[in-house]
């Protein structure tokens, strides 16, 4: 009884809190969401620019393996960083949407990331086979392999649990609720692994394609590759900041978060 | 009045909650803390093993630049991963200590990391100068530079704010409390940057020292270097998991955390 009272009071406190949201808080929210959007689109745009300006664009042909390889960094950055990043942030961006629409958008953005990652992976696998290079020897490939595996498992679990199980909405509510923090934690881990894979991949690519002599001479292409890496890290920092700010949650999930803390 | 009542009730709920802490929760806590400890010590031990077994140990002499370079990965892993990792986790490991002792231990572990990072940096700077290699051209060096800068600023701010300002305990309480989340957020960012720097550095080292031919042939040294990288990522995942678990906080800071959430 006392507990029910305290909960009512708490939810009332959120409402008034929501109405009194200060200009400063909105400015901060708008600023970091805008920054994240610019970085997430910018990193893919910069990668495409790099490939067209310095690496002669794209192809998928037996006699043009290097152009085929170019699909790998572009699609992996798009899949693991841009689409996955937006997908993660949707729960903070679409705060006034109904939850089911946000979930669907989350699934759609991951559905866009999925072919990027699969084609990006096949592009480098086929490139290695054409050139007679071994697969899965480097730290980059190990990280990428785990990231892809986690992405696949997360997608399957998410699709099954949070969309398909809605057929039996009430019966599965407890199971779905208990799965949310696990799905979120592994989702963030996948994103972090994606960023780590990009950073090690960019380091490899700079040394393989530019060569240590020219790279250490600070040629323009080296700076562009470094800038892509810096953008990946900036995205990781901004995304983690947005996710850690309780103020940026929807009032509903903020309430759940606090209740979860109180109910420990 | 009602609010005071609800807070009393909440703090009572923590107490009973704390007493009833289940065996399962303690097992989880003990397991992840043990895992983190093994990984944090293991990654440094593995780096030392790698250097002695494959890279001929350490030196600081003009005629042995390669042995001097070996100080760089060893000290950076020790400083940015092992000591910093333990320092971050102290607030979850020493839950029954008085807060001031935890703070002092946190400062001491960072004080151990400090010379590691400085000497590790000077080792590679001197190595580059001896060999006539440019400095700060690679993505690894850019990430490392930012990580070192943040580490220095964090150390100075932390030492000044959380230890020196205790001279005027009451007068600075508000300022110190408001600084805690900023210091914690930038601390985690520094740790993530440290891990990213290690991963890109290991990739560079594998390609420079083993060479792409032997590295792609899966030689033992390549696997050891990859294992150091995997350990770094595992540490990042375990540390982030421990920090995200509200249950692992001290009851005191857990209360502060929840009050901060409720008071938004």
From TrEMBL, chains A, B:
InterPro entries: CYB561/CYBRD1-like, Cyt_b561/ferric_Rdtase_TM. Its cofactor is heme b. PROSITE patterns: CYTOCHROME_B561. Pfam families: Cytochrom_B561. The keyword Transferase does not apply. It is found in: Membrane. Keywords: Electron transport, Heme, Iron, Membrane, Metal-binding, Transmembrane, Transmembrane helix, Transport. The chain crosses the membrane at residues 29-53, 73-92, 104-125, 145-167, 179-203, 223-244. PANTHER family: CYTOCHROME B561-RELATED (PTHR10106), NO EXTENDED MEMORY, ISOFORM A (PTHR10106:SF24). This is Cytochrome b561-like isoform X5. It comes from Spodoptera litura. The gene is LOC111351984.
């Amino acid at each position: 009884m006392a507990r029910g009272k305290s909960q009512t009071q708490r939810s009332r406190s959120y409402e008034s809190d929501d109405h009194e949201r200060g200009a400063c808080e909105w400015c901060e929210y708008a600023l970091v969401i805008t920054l994240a959007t610019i970085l997430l689109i910018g990193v893919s745009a910069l990668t495409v620019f790099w490939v067209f300006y310095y690496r002669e664009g794209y192809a998928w042909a037996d006699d043009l393996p290097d152009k085929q390889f170019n699909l790998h960094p572009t699609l992996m950055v798009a899949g693991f960083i841009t689409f996955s990043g937006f997908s993660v942030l949707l729960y903070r961006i679409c705060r006034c949407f109904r939850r089911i629409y946000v979930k669907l958008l989350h699934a759609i953005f991951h559905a866009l990331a999925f072919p990027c990652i699969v084609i990006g992976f096949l592009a480098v696998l086929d490139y290695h086979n054409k050139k007679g290079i071994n697969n899965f020897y480097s730290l980059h490939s190990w990280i990428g392999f785990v990231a892809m595996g986690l992405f696949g498992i997360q997608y399957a679990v998410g699709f099954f649990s949070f969309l398909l199980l809605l057929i039996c909405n009430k019966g599965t509510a407890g199971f779905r609720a208990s799965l949310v923090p696990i799905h979120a934690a592994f989702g963030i881990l996948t994103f972090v692994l994606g960023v780590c894979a990009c950073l090690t991949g960019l380091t490899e690519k700079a040394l393989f394609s530019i060569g240590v002599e020219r790279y250490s001479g600070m040629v323009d292409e080296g700076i562009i590759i470094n800038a892509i890496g810096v953008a990946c890290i900036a995205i990781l920092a901004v995304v983690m900041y947005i996710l850690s700010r309780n103020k940026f949650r929807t009032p509903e999930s903020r309430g759940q978060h606090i209740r979860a803390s109180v109910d420990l």
